[in-house]
Amino acid sequence: MNPADCDKILLVQAEFDGELDAAEAAALALHRETCPICQAAASELAQTRELLRVPGVYRPASDDLRARVLANLGAARPAPPRPARNWFAGWRQGSAGFGLGAACAAALAVLIVAPRQQGLTDQLVASHIRALQPGHLEDVVSTDQHTVKPWFDGRLDFAPPVKDLAAEGFPLKGGRLDYLDGRPVAALVYQRDKHLIDLYVWPEGGTQAAFPSTAAESGYNVVHWSADGMTLWAVSDVEAGQLAGFARDWRKAK
Predict the structure, then answer these.
(1) What's the burial of 101, exposed, middle or buried (CB within 10 Å: 0-12/13-18/19+)?
(2) Element at 66 (helix H, strand E)
(3) CB 32 within 8 A of CB 39
(4) Phi, psi at residue 85, to the nearest 5°?
(5) Mean pLDDT of 207-222
(6) Domain shared by 35 and 85, yes or no
(7) What gap in Å lies between CA 19 and CA 25, rounded to an integer?
(8) Fewest beta carbons less than 10 Å away: which of 37, 103, 174, 189?
(9) How far apart are CA 230 and CA 151, in angstroms?
């Protein structure tokens, strides 16, 4: 099986590195369901990441080793200038298999840098920041919950709960599709004064509501809770107490 037989193989690496937007990631997920080449690529990348997480596998380079590597690099004769290109694209054009490429990447990570681990909280904050860019916040713009909720019909395999919190000081602005934790999710957009709140929703598998838990990442506050079989994550730069109040009001609203 030759990885070059699928023209979406590079997107697998891009998704693994968190470089795809929500629409691209969702489209790739649908493609991967029927593409054994992309399935194998994603599996090998995931296995490599898990190997790097095993205690004792990763060891930071010693100061002596780092100094010798840098000295050797400095003594090496510069190569002739070449047009810039993506290293992964170069691999694709070669004859090496995907497994060899993944193994080389793993070896490099063990010797030089720590494995990159992006937790769900990091993904949520990164998604919120991306959404703040012009044109990325809402796919459907409406303050009416009865307009926003049916917009998701046929676009997701679940019906996200949409609530009107205008009376509590958190008016609804709209919603969009996003892609988190390996699946498409609903992102509901609320506002508090000049601050925006993203509420991410997807099926949790349970039915018992959990008491909200909080976190902070890169200057943004995050509140997580579960209710009625859904897991919900609110992300915003509003003060932590206000975001907790949003979660409390959302849980009480019908």
Answers:
(1) buried
(2) helix 63-75
(3) yes
(4) -155, 160
(5) 75
(6) yes
(7) 9
(8) 103
(9) 18
Backbone angles phi, psi at 177, to 5 degrees: -85, 145
Q: Is 242 helix (H, G, I), strand (E, B) or coil?
A: helix
Region at 8 (left for phi over 0; alpha for psi -120 to 50; beta for the rest): alpha
**pLDDT tens, residue by residue, 31-66:** 888 998 888 888 888 777 766 666 555 556 667 766
SS3 185: strand
pTM: 0.56
More confident residue, 70 or 115: 70
Closest residue by Cα to residue 211 from 224, 221, 200, 220: 224
* DSSP letter assigned to residue 30: H
Statement to judge: residues 87 and 125 lie in one domain: no
Residue pair 4/92 in contact by the 8 Å Cβ criterion: yes
Dihedral over alpha carbons 71, 77, 80, 83 (to 10 degrees)? -10
Dihedral sign for Cα 10, 11, 12, 18, please: positive
* DSSP string covering 70-88: HHHHHHSPPPPP-----HH
Amino acid at 103: A
Q: How many domains does the chain have?
A: 2
- Do 199 and 190 contact (CB within 8 A), yes or no? yes
